[in-house]
């Protein structure tokens, strides 16, 4: 066996194992887990069975087969990054709206509190310092 | 409605001026100030929203607009907390609205524009197709229809109240007009957009991308006003 292949196999198995571990420990969840699980599986297959690469090359008509995983990998990274920024924008929108809503509700609560301050059962000002 | 960040020096006078001039409810939106702007505003007789996180000028303005929508106000006037907008001139906005029946009236002071701003606005006029003299003026009157649009999530990711907001309104068929008003020089604070050259460059770059993505909006507004003129 060639040493390069051993390195690739170790990398593949190592990455697969760490991703599985992270999913197992609930550090990656939902759609992210699925995505990274697919990445782990692909790395594992490519690392352990490097013969897949020239086979895929001949299948897709790419002469210099070793470049294939690099191209595919880079495009996947780009897609992932794009998705990340889309998610971030959505979260930013939600965060801003929540912040505004919080301020609005706080003001309304203050106003109500001012009116019903005589209420004997009032429990609304527990967190007043 | 007055968005304010660290404007304790001027906010009370502005609130008092608006109350004396219009007698309406005054809402100060405190954009996470550290100097007690909200307390000063309340002391001057305004209601105050205190944002727990700084959202920037537009984020604060939108908070006020959402408050107005929630409480069923017929319209919102926004002005800056630094005292550059004179409370006595607010009536001009109503007059302009009555005359033009536009949904949004922007109070502008063209004499006060710096050369850099003139160049920037000329560029934005070309890019957006909106025929406005001043894109960033914070002195505005929004009617209930404009408020309903601006309170929505579509306006939440905008950073400035200018081009993005105006394009959004134009796209939904809102009529926007300007009216000249006198303005005083800023007593304290400074423009958030025109602070320094790198900021301006970044602002123009952002705005350009926004405009290119929404290239049809301003032109549509042009068509709307053309139709109005024919009618």
- The overall number of domains of chain A is 2
Give me the CATH fold name of chain B.
Spore Coat Polysaccharide Biosynthesis Protein SpsA, Chain A
Number of domains of chain B: 1
- What is the share of helical residues of chain B? 40-55%
Q: What are the segments of chain A in which pLDDT stays under 50 over at least 5 consecutive residues?
A: 116-129
Most extensive chain contact?
A: A-B, 15 and 18 residues
* Adjacency order of strands in the biggest sheet of chain B: 4-6-5-7
Mean pLDDT across the residues of chain A is 78
Keywords, separated by commas or semicolons:
heterodimer, A: 129 residues, mainly alpha, 76% helix, 0% strand, disordered C terminus, B: 231 residues, alpha/beta, Spore Coat Polysaccharide Biosynthesis Protein SpsA, Chain A, four-stranded mixed beta sheet, three-stranded parallel beta sheet, 9 helices, globular
Describe the protein:
The complex is a heterodimer of chains A (129) and B (231). Chain A is mainly α. Chain A contains four helices and no strands. Chain A starts with a helix and ends in a 14-residue tail after the last helix. Chain A has two domains: 1-50; 66-113. Chain A is elongated. With 231 residues, chain B is α/β, with parallel strands linked by helices. Chain B has a single domain (2-230), classed as Spore Coat Polysaccharide Biosynthesis Protein SpsA, Chain A (Alpha-Beta Complex). Helix content of chain B is 46%, strand content 13%. Chain B has helices at residues 11-22, 37-43, 56-70, 90-100, 115-128, 144-150, 163-171, 197-213, 216-230, and strands at 2-4, 27-30, 47-50, 75-78, 104-108, 140-143, 176-180. In chain B, strand 1 (2-4), helix 1 (11-22) and strand 2 (27-30) form a beta-alpha-beta unit. The longest helix of chain B is centred in the C-terminal third of the chain and has 17 residues, at 197-213. Chain B starts with a strand and ends with a helix. Residues 225-231 of chain B have low confidence and may be disordered.
């Amino acid at each position: 066996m060639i040493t390069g292949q051993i390195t690739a196999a170790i990398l593949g198995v190592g990455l697969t194992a760490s991703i599985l571990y992270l999913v197992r420990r609930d550090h990656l969840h939902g759609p992210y887990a699925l995505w990274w699980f697919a990445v782990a599986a692909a790395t594992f297959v490519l690392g352990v069975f490097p013969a897949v690469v020239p086979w895929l090359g001949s299948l897709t008509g790419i002469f210099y087969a070793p470049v294939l995983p690099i191209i595919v990998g880079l495009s996947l990274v780009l897609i992932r990054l794009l998705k990340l920024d889309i998610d971030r924008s959505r979260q930013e929108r939600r965060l801003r709206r929540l912040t505004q809503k919080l301020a609005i509700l706080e003001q309304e609560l203050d106003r109500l509190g001012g009116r019903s301050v005589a209420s004997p059962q009032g429990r609304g000002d527990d967190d007043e310092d | 409605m007055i968005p304010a960040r660290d404007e304790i020096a001027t906010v009370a006078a502005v609130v008092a001026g608006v109350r004396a001039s219009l007698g309406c409810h005054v809402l100060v939106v405190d954009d996470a100030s550290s100097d007690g702007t909200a307390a000063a505003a309340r002391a001057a007789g305004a209601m105050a929203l205190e944002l727990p996180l700084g959202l920037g000028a537009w984020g604060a303005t939108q908070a006020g607009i959402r408050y107005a929508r929630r409480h069923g106000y017929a319209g919102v006037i926004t002005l800056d907390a630094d005292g550059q907008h004179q409370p006595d001139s607010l009536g001009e906005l109503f007059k302009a609205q009555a005359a033009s029946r536009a949904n949004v009236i922007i109070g502008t002071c063209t004499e006060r524009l710096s050369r850099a701003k003139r160049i920037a606005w000329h560029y934005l006029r070309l890019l957006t197709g909106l025929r406005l003299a001043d894109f960033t003026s914070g002195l505005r009157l929004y009617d209930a229809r404009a408020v309903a649009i601006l309170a929505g999530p579509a306006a939440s990711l905008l950073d400035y109240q200018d081009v993005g907001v105006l394009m959004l309104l134009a796209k939904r068929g809102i009529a926007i007009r300007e009216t000249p008003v006198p303005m005083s020089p800023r007593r304290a604070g400074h423009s958030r957009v025109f602070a320094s050259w790198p900021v301006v460059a970044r602002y123009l770059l952002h705005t350009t991308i926004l405009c290119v993505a929404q290239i049809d909006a301003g032109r549509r507004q042009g068509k709307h006003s053309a139709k109005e003129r024919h009618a």
